[in-house]
């Protein structure tokens, strides 16, 4: 049985006679990027190409354009060290992207891999993409092809399980500071000014949490993992009223996936028969901003000025900062070493501080989430002094 | 008749026996900031305080908090060179602001000026604010008070007439590049990707025009001064279809005041009986993005991916760049020299490259607008190669 | 006599029958960049290529690599709109550069122009380069060639006469703020901390002056146009002592061309028979820093901590800011329109706010300098409150 | 025996009856910052003050100005959450600093602590400072005072042993990219252009190594841990010659502590009898630049253009980036929890990913250094493809 057909978890070093499984001249590698943008993707592309070339003398690397469907719907493009020399200074992905999951034809993808003689497939993307990679890997194994399939996990939300941190995450938190600063300046400059900033995080509030901890200007951070409610003595409206009374202004950071159940209730309560506009209210930032404005307009107790900022695309489309560049470089080199050694069916990642190879099935077990009983969330609560929203009826606990 | 009571247009130097009208020890100056935020306001505050102190030995400068209403509803705060030493490194205004126009009681404002013995009033703000300044000036003249009223025009939209350029404008154009860059990266990274960026400019499209010229990544710039239409062979939808077919992606910049008549039509056509959501569609950026998405979804000819960015508050809440800092410094010094010489009822500004004193009534004659028959707009059209939208029925002119 | 052979000063529009002198298909343009780097050069290159292509349908544009000598020592490279699409986001020049003046063989340059059939030559560079352009123009005229020679003046020092402002200047002043900020932070953090920042400006102190005015953290600005002296009751050492005594820290900005006569004296006084190290002291920043350290070490009155920053290359190697991008675009378009209309032997530039064509001989009449009796320098003196150094023996004039 | 007198290594939780040793109202804390600047120091100060206040209700926190000597030579300043609210947005230290080691009178410091009734001392600084902290701790123990002494290790060089990473390190690596970018642009723009960048690192080359890995534009990285030589077939000069021949330009990064033995040799070989200038050559960046210029001038084989950049103060005087802000916050909270629990004589730090309390003597055992036989340095060598300089006589190994 050939080592390439085995999963990395079965054996640590499958190639029992040599550390390098592939001959350089036999390697035909390809790289594909899927899913949403994330700072650092171009750095990973660059370092796979340069790593294969400089460390192993591999010269055949192809780029697949436009995500998975590019395998069968587009021409490939050659990638040499010269082509990728400066790409890490740009945001986005030079290969283009499309949705990682669903709608792609695994059979045709593997046909393309087989027909083109590709034997190393590097796949960058989030959880949907990694699930797709797993299916491609299974199909390749079923066909008995000697092809190494390697995932590089990429999710700006930092919601990929097992691994310590997603690439591009520090850059996203850094860039989010601009939006929070602007919200703070706007809020401070008017009486009862409220700045609301929506940050990424459909299932996990990591960006919101770290951006809040880094900024120190945030009064309330709302994330999917920690439900909240608007009304009542311990609700958000009352907290806003108190904070404005004390300080005269405040900043709220909300992750895009927070408060989804509240939105559902709220929209089903509306006369929803038509409205183009109501679709927009499914965006939690627009919805919450409207709710707060309506509340204070109706209550007539307090005239507020609310400024809403959604910096999502400005956060994720920037080039990566230096620490993410180093991180991406190491991930790419780890991926290259793994593939060259004949491993397949794994995702690279740092686990407890060590570069590791993780079987696909482990990475595909749901999202990593903020644990709201853990220290980091406690630190956030202590920093913002916001309500824990644990008890909708009870009295507010001033401190966690 | 005292020189302080005259308008600057009547005579150039009213103080006929001396260049300095006020004795330093007699000066009681105050500064008030009104209207929307704009980069550079803190620099102007700093330089009025430091200019009065260092150039004339004036030590009594007060800050009025929260805009015009702060004259009668709040305590003043003392401003010394030490207090304002670092404020130019921050966005916003340390004095706070509120709407410049309407709802303020001129009588109470002038009472406060009179009662507190203030004899120099420095007023920062846009057109509404300057109109308010004019009314205050008239009331002061009516009462025969020896008070110098000086306006420093501040509108990030650059829509103040007579003067060459508003303070903070270059900073706003600079900061807008981030949003356009992000839109460009997002658009480039997907098939038929469209990035839409809304920029400030209710009546005038200067920020949108200059940001487009500076970026070179924009395919279409829509401003209030140049009407456009969506449908038809020369409409926006068709232009989008063509540009996507040619390039695979595009960036649209739209000023907040563009296309207002289209929105009105569009919203009145909707079943508008209710909807909280529909209010959001009065925002031209959200409205246009929805329209484009709907059009391509319905036409089924082309699957597009649209990303919308509204960087407004991130653009206007930043500290000013160096060139604006110098500009603000010179404006503030000009204001101080004018007031100390006994001039009143004027706004400072650079006109045809020269620092000038402009009577209030001149600055209050409507907004400055982009002249779409002028060279700068022609340069933009030549740079984006967008349709001129001049003839809704006719054929598209490929070049101006 | 052909219009191309005439100097622009002789007639305004030489082509008497048409506004466009060249047919698009006949144009063979080339671009060369010489002298030191300056932010915005790549923008100009981009806009010449795109302007010729989009506005006139010209497709033949060549890049000359490595400055003037590239005409005869290197291959040319083709420049299309696609090639230059993103170059304005990079610092430096994609064409490379070398010294603009001297050592280049005019005959061989013009031979190359003639042999390659080039009929439009765009030359970017400072005063040396423009003098070279003038010589090339004369030789072309002597040979009776129908070649348009156009200069685009580029000097980060802003020392080019006649024109209002050099391209890249605002960017340089902006970037210089980082160095001044760092110097200020370092100085503030230690007792008797002195931060010294050297900025560009061999003959003219514009960058130093504007960077000082923009920053407000500078205590003393030394430029070539305003001599200073070290010793005596009104000398720099005494001013430093006073300022440190009052404030505990200070920042000095010095232009590279300031104090040259003091350095000469100082170095000739040294035992200079050998020293590799002494060469370094011809750098005014290193020299002044050493002098200040030695003075306070010897005087034993005050222990100082001096930090020296030379940000020269970090300032001039950045991409241009938005306002410079617009400026470069307009200059390039102006150059293209001029050449296409058949003008030759001129430099483009903004003069009193208007885009103008300036004959070479006017631009080559010495450097533009800061006029120290003008308002701007007075503003600087009032801002820093530094001595005027006008009278080495007399008493210090405290201030207006 | 009181728990406060024990070292943290002796027992983990000294306070056997309660988690909190101090009563809030009894705490009199002080903070002192020593040694060179480092991004993030103000964040730590802020979070100690806010952590004590918000988490424990402590209101008495003093700032000691100007480093250790401030204990006896200056007044203290009160620090409240309001005072420190915005300081994390500024570089440097609001408390000022001075050399951490030597010349300070431990007796007088402890007298001041005792006389002022201070019972928590937070000390920020590098290895010298931590050694000083250890001595202060011993003296406090000798006198039997119930004072908690806590170190927060701060060295931008990242050379503190035991801990994973120093605060501010990521910021420094980020900021160093600007200098490397500028060097790269300058080098690329001239024929045989060489950019030399000196980065911090007297004993350890971490900043140089990570900045090189992050940038990808560096051709050679020289650090104290890896000796190099100039001459010979495997020397630096020959490597430069080869790289220039291949690529036409190159960038060299050198840590300030690299090549010290070469400088000594070189300077002792010079006629050093006098020269002020020669002192400057003890700066390895200036020295190396001169050596390279001299070599190529003498050899006459190749005309080079060398640009030298020393961004040291611009790198270390900036505010910290978001990830460092979070890191500083957690360190400060860890310090506060430790002190409040009654621990003393320890430094806080992250060790193998965990926040830990480290006894002073462990942190004072020499510098952490780059291990040049480890993976990270191998990655760097593979990335730059520079010579390993392991064998001065032998042939160059192309790859590690």
**Biggest beta-sheet profile of chain A:** 7 strands, mixed
CATH class of the largest domain in chain A: Alpha Beta
The number of helical segments of chain A is 14
Biggest contact: A-B, 43 and 43 residues
Report strand % of chain A: 5-15%
Class per helix and strand makeup of chain A:
alpha/beta
Examine the coordinates and then state which fold CATH places here, giving the name of the CATH topology of the largest domain in chain A.
Rossmann fold
The 3D shape of chain A can be described as elongated
Any guess at the CATH architecture of the largest domain in chain A? Answer: 3-Layer(aba) Sandwich
Overview of the molecule:
- Chain A has 400 residues and is of the alpha/beta class.
- Chain A is built from 14 helices and eleven strands.
- Chain A folds into two domains: 209 residues, 3-Layer(aba) Sandwich (Rossmann fold), CATH 3.40.50.450; 145 residues, Rossmann fold (3-Layer(aba) Sandwich), CATH 3.40.50.
- Helix content of chain A is 40%, strand content 14%.
- In chain A, β7, α7 and β8 form a beta-alpha-beta unit.
- In chain A, α3 crosses α4 and α5 crosses α6.
- Chain A is elongated and about 75 Å long.
- Chain A starts with 28 loop residues before the first strand and ends in a 16-residue tail after the last helix.
- The N terminus and C terminus of chain A are likely disordered.
- Chains A, B, C, D: InterPro entries: ATP_PFK, PFKA, Phosphofructokinase_dom, PKF_sf, PyroP-dep_PFK_TP0108.
